[in-house]
Design a protein that fits this description.
transmembrane, mainly alpha, 2 helices, about 140 residues, 3 strands, about 55% helix
Length: about 140
Amino acid sequence: ACSAFSQKSCEECLKNVSCLWCYTNNTCIDYPVRSILPSSSLCSLSNARWGVCWMNFEALIIAIAVVAGLILVSVTVCCCYCCYCRKRSRSRLDEEEEQLARKREERRLQSLQRKHERKLKHDEIRKKYGLLQDSDNPYSRFENE
């Protein structure tokens, strides 16, 4: 029982996790589990100690609230930042992919155009030297004179 540690010291009282030390009358009482915060009729929050003797209950609640708030804000910011970055990187990747596809198509068209120009030039040379075969009969035999 926590009342056995009354009139002793705060450290001895708080060795038991279920105990609450009140500095107003130096008593060790059972922590009111049914209510989250101890009522002011038991002990005021500024004089109540739980867990550690060097921090009052009021400061402990504020510190826990600040830490929880910081964690919540940081998780929210991280989630929003990650979602924004993913969306941005996806759109950037799509743009790069489109640009690469356009360049690839341009290169293919340029290659086909150069190929066609080479074919025309080769056909002119063949015609000049009489090497061009009839288009009606492409399988005719080449005859030397």
